[in-house]
Design brief:
The protein has 22 helices and six strands. By secondary structure, it is mainly alpha-helical.
């Protein structure tokens, strides 16, 4: 699967919209036919529903399958609902097995049955193998189309074998060397195959230091392996080391992009598969639960303020200063959470270093609290002429930043420990904690010290 661009060029999108508004559909068709399927997918996601239907009808039927692979889940489901069985069958024709498996769960059951019936026995077994795995596992990512050789054959034999095949799987940088039982024992780089003496055997030139991944490995682990070792492809094996398929760098790029989208959207409590131009009702259904949580936490924060209504009435300055304490605490907490979520995604946090990381963030909060709390204290003194208020401001800022540090580290770590997504709604939760805590700390200290 090819990686989609981050965003369609603004000028091209504007040109397409202008052409649609002016009704110059011939120009629109030429533009669409000149685009790569990944670009078309990005443009479709960027269009309103009515415009999307017009553009989708203009897509070359040969590109339908690739476009469906690149759009997000919700847009894909909407496009598929508007296609008949024949169109869907044509769209899936020619797709690689791993790409076809990605589409399978979104296709109507009648269509999937026809697809399977139209396959030969080998491809049917390959598809079944991939479908048995979770989509976010190495087995779910792999393509079963591999080229294998035995260690005892010469390079000349291998070259003749490849010429008989006539084509090679995309992104093939090496051949997998297997024994008589199908176990991977090494790899033969294409460069060595082409530049070495044809009379040498595969076993004499193969690399025995393997980077194979288990079929049950998480997609994130696979992406990290590719990143760390600059891989183009790697074999996927079962618990006995038997070759099942391979993963290529284009699949890993998709994983990295999807993980980044998921992290950014989840921190705000959003679904990365949400259609940008979905209906109001559908969008509301996607977002209501986190808004409800935010409303509940905001109510708690308002009740905390209500506890100190008498203090605010006696010292009106508290009302203007307390949002600063809560706001800066929330910002600091979000910085910490972003750092922790990213570290968890990269596998950089374990039980051994989590405590050290917490102590470091506490240290950062102490320094920031003293520096910026002190600065705000000076400002409060200059504005209101009260040394006591300045001290309360400094202390409240320091304590709320400490609270933000502890919560910012703890929230994603605890969610991760209990098998939940560490990024999901984390910004909502940290804001609730720092708002409620900040109000309580600041108004509580002011009541004790100043009144």
């Amino acid at each position: 699967m090819s990686d989609a661009p981050e965003a369609a060029p603004t000028s091209r999108l504007n040109e397409l919209r202008t052409a649609l508004e002016e009704g110059t559909l011939r120009h629109v068709r030429r533009m669409v036919h000149a685009m790569h399927p990944a670009e078309i997918a990005t443009l479709i996601e960027s269009l309103r529903s009515a415009e999307r239907e017009i553009v989708w009808e203009m897509v070359d039927p040969d590109d339908d399958g690739e476009v469906l692979l690149h759009v997000n889940d919700e847009v894909r489901a909407n496009l598929i609902r508007g296609m008949d069985a024949e169109e869907l069958l044509n769209a899936t024709e020619g797709l690689e097995i791993d790409d076809l498996a990605d589409l399978f769960q979104d296709l109507p059951e009648a269509v999937t049955r026809q697809i399977v019936r139209g396959m030969d026995q080998q491809n049917r077994e390959r598809l079944q193998t991939v479908l048995e795995y979770a989509p976010d596992s190495a087995g779910g990512l792999m393509n079963t189309d591999t080229v294998t050789v035995r260690p005892d054959v010469t390079l000349d034999v291998v070259l003749r074998y490849l010429r008989m095949r006539e084509d090679m799987p995309p992104n093939t940088d090496s051949l997998f060397v297997v024994d008589r039982y199908g176990k991977v024992i090494g790899t033969l780089a294409i460069t060595k195959l082409l530049t070495s003496d044809p009379e040498l055997t595969v076993g004499e030139l193969m690399e025995t230091e393997l980077t194979a991944v288990r079929d049950e490995a998480a997609a994130a682990e696979v992406a990290k392996l590719f990143q760390d070792r600059d891989l183009v492809s790697t074999p996927v094996v079962d618990e006995k080391g038997v070759l099942l398929g391979r993963i290529t760098v284009d699949d890993v790029v998709d994983v990295i992009r999807d993980e980044a989208d998921h992290t950014v959207m989840s921190m705000a409590g959003l679904d990365e598969a949400e259609d940008l131009f979905a209906s109001v009702g559908r969008t509301v259904r996607h977002r209501w639960h986190w808004i409800a949580i935010n409303l509940a936490t905001a109510f708690v924060a308002s009740r905390v303020i209500g506890l100190f209504e008498g203090s605010i009435e006696k010292l009106v300055a508290l009302a203007s200063l307390m949002p600063m304490v809560a706001g800066i605490g929330g910002n600091a907490g979000n910085q910490t959470i972003t750092l922790i979520v990213r570290a968890l995604a990269l596998g950089r946090i374990s039980g051994d270093n989590a405590r050290s990381l917490l102590m470091k963030e506490i240290g950062v909060s102490l320094v920031n609290g003293l520096v910026w709390g002190g600065l705000l204290g000076v400002i409060a003194w200059l504005l209101y002429g009260s040394v006591g208020l300045a001290l309360v401001m400094t202390a409240a800022m320091l304590l709320n930043l400490l609270l933000a540090a502890v919560a910012g580290v703890s929230i994603p770590l605890l969610r991760n420990r209990f098998g939940r997504d560490p990024a999901q709604g984390s910004s909502v939760l940290i804001t609730a904690i720092t708002d409620t805590g900040g109000f309580f700390i600041f108004l509580g200290l002011a009541t004790l010290v100043l009144l």
